[in-house]
Amino acid sequence: MAAPSPPPTSTVVTYLDMHAPPARPPVAPPRDGLVVVRAERPTLAFYRFLYDGVGSDWTWTDRKVVDQAELLAEIRDPDVHVNVLWDRGTPAGYAELDTRERGQVQLAYFGLMPEFIGQGYGRYLLDWAIRRAWSFEPERVWVHTCDLDHPNALPTYKKAGFVPYATATQELGPERF
Fold first, then answer.
1. 170: pLDDT confidence band, cut at 50, 70 and 90?
2. Closest Cα partner for 83 from 63, 108, 101, 103?
3. Which among 1, 21, 26, 90 would be 20 to 30 A from 156, CA to CA?
4. What mean pLDDT comes out for the span 47-58?
5. DSSP per-residue string spanning 158-171
6. CA terminus-to-terminus distance, the chain
7. CA separation (Å) from 9 to 2, 98, 144, 146, 171?
8. Structural domain boundaries of the chain?
9. What is the pLDDT of residue 45?
């Protein structure tokens, strides 16, 4: 039996943005009963449930090493919008929009719970998030992803209208694993 490969020590981050809202019609929900609701005052436990549920397979850990009080203040900031996709009462994913920087909206976190991947929910939620981001009338909407994320993340963002504008190699510390 071969020894497991060591965890990566770096990742390539791709930054993408768009400078105009989509001209295409909105993406229809893939099934009846889907609703996106903003968690206006999420608890830390609920937020971590979303974050871990969506990101654990993709090495999301940056929010795990943040001080709890600092994280709670951030996710409850009136300019941070934690939007949860619900499927008949079950959280299917979330899209976190950060509007704190004037003139831009960052799609800070986005993804689906594993059970909902591959059913059209991601395309629907991403389109919803992009349209919601443009409702704030920014000059641009941006997102970043890395090569540790879902293999379809970068192509999905591009298909949705985001255009890459920079890449960077980021070193990963041991807290990442």
1. confident
2. 108
3. 90
4. 93
5. HHTT-EEEEEEEEE
6. 23
7. 20, 28, 19, 13, 6
8. 10-176
9. 96
Q: For the chain, how are helix, strand and coil distributed in percent, rounded to 5?
A: 30, 30, 40
Distance CA 60, CA 55 (A): 5
Homologous superfamily (CATH) for 10-176: Gcn5-related N-acetyltransferase (GNAT) (3.40.630.30)
Q: Which two tokens stand for residue 79?
A: 């300019």
Q: Which position has the token pair 């608890």?
A: 43
Name the pairing type of β-strands 140-146 and 104-112.
parallel
Beta bridge partners of 95: 83, 110
Chain segment 76-123, per-residue pLDDT in tens: 999 999 999 999 999 999 999 999 999 999 999 999 999 999 999 999
Give Cα separations from 148 to 42, 48, 55, 152, 154 (angstroms): 27, 20, 10, 11, 11
Give the total residue count for the chain: 177
